[in-house]
Here is the input.
Amino acid sequence: MIHAEHFDWQQHGNVGLVTLNRPERKNPLTFESYAELRDTFRGLTANDGINAIVISGQGGNFCSGGDVHEIIGPLTKMDMGGLLAFTRMTGDLIKAIRNCPQPVIAAIDGVCVGAGAAVAMAADMRFGTAQSKTAFLFTRVGLAGCDMGACAMLPRLIGQGRASELLFTGRSMSGDEAFNWGFFNQLCEPEEVNSKAVAMAHRLADGPNFAHGITKNQLNTEWDMPLDTAIEAEAQAQAICMQTEDFKRAYRAFVAREKPEFEGN
Here is the structure.
């Protein structure tokens, strides 16, 4: 059972819902919420009862990044050791999202900036709205655009040139741009973005979950593999999946002209 103090946690069947819940400030992150989110996603690796995750924010916004008063202010007074401990912790949240075997879907409306944009980037899929504004605004506060894996991951999502523009200028990417550039998987009406993300999460959660974990692992590990190595890695991964009961269930269902009921083993 997951208990959260610094964000809302709900479980609907085999789908977990993470909701950032400081709407009066557009859902900023604090030292405590960073750490709790990191630990929650790390714990999902050993949680067989949750097969997909949706991240969203309350009040019509996703996340306004690090809280100006509770994070940015204290950072200006830290020494190098403290600063590095903080930046490594924020990176550990991104690694935890990427390394958990469950598919993670971000439902994005309104403001999605700074660390919030990085969390959205780390998700496996993003459902957004035309009204959303996504910005990697680190350079606007005197920092480099290379934060929380942005220089590695964002070019893979939207291309090197587009990522370079956003990371150098810190400008907002509109919802239409985000969809047309491939950052958003779907563009939804604001009143539907959460429900559509949850519907996709349930669809995935009812699928072959062991195989989904293998897929996510390969998406992560094949980034820097030569093609021959990647093909061999996928051959081994697929052979492992072919030993599962889900693979046999799918075959039996196909023969019987029925829909397979996967159990994740």
The first helix runs from residue 31 to 43. The radius of gyration is 19 Å. Residues 214 and 238 are 8 Å apart (CA to CA).
